[in-house]
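Much of the work behind modern protein science is quiet bookkeeping, done one molecule at a time. The protein below has been through that process, and both of its lines are reproduced in full.
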Amino acid sequence: MNTTDRQTRLSARDRTMQRLLVAALLVSAAALAGCGANPDRNATHSIPDDYRTRHPIVLTEAEHTMDIPVATGDRSLPRAVRDNIRGFAAEHASKSRGAIQIMLPRGSANAGSADRARKEIRATLTAAGVPRDRIIETSYDAGGYGDIAPIRLAFFAIAAKTGPCGEWPEDLVENTMENRNYHNFGCATQSNLAAQIANPMDLVQPRGMSPIDAERRGVVIETYRDEGQPLL
């Protein structure tokens, strides 16, 4: 075998290897393209949905209520009930500038006792700082409450809330196979977070900063200079 024949065979072998390499690359590219055509079928890299988007915290108008039980023979309110009424008045002062409704039962056996108690309730609310012109007296049909129907105090205020929890519109098996959160996931967390927000307007705009305490700042700086203690 001369040198020319040997070079010809080596060139043919190189060309064959190049063809096999190109074919392998084409097969790999086709396989990758097939996977990319339907990403949802094999989506295992991440969870696409967010519970904060599915259960957002929004501002809405909510009714705040307090029921006051009144027995048929009651002549006055117990001290503990008057304390509860003052607490309800404090909640109204911090959350609303609207009116408080005193809703009296109508048609129940304790309707007379409730009518006597309304004057004491109004006086307690007034003493707690609720203006007289913001106390409204109404009545409701107490037929569904039996003989002892409560006096209800109510006012409306802006509150942070989420939608209702405990809804299961989809089968959990489908969510698990597609690696997605189920519909009710995160709803309780969002609802509890909304209930802890004291001022719902903090979700809209941050509050202004209070002025600095110049006297306290001077004391801290002098202590740091004189004794080398860390700032508190």
About this structure: Confidence is low (pLDDT under 50) at residues 37-48.
